[in-house]
Amino acid sequence: MTKSGEVDLTLSSPLSALDPSLEFVELFESSTKLLLPPNQTLPKDEDVDLAYIARYPLILYGPDTVLRARLEHAFADEGLNYDIVMEMDNAAFVKRYVRIGMGIGLCSNFCLEPNDHNEMRIVDFDRILSSFTIGIHTLAGRFQSQSVRNFIDVLRNFEPLSSVLRNGRRSKQ
Fold it and tell me: Which residues form the domain of 163?
């Protein structure tokens, strides 16, 4: 959508292939989190691996997303079968259906809100799917309004909630 000019910017990970029509500005590193219903029994962290999550119904983003592609590639590398029961357009929907017990899901740490930790079980999944860069794609050479430039500045100063919770304060001022 950014490439076609429909939107001014896209918040995402870098493209796998360079595209000279798009500019990318790195914002921060994001980690992958496994989302489980609040009553889900959980083995020790070291036992939460691809084989563990392949046993459960999966609620994931659509097939064109980086997180989904990374997960499916990891399943293929391990020769594991899995069952995607729902595909969602955003993390809010993934979290909603995980909370009510329809399956387990994955999301980036920057999609988590403070209350999520009280409403579902959240497990670090970086040892399975390593952290990745999140940034902004814009159309190269396209004029950006002041409001778009202001929004980009806000994003550049953004610190994921997980960092705030871990450090107890914001590190950027």
Answer: 9-29+132-167
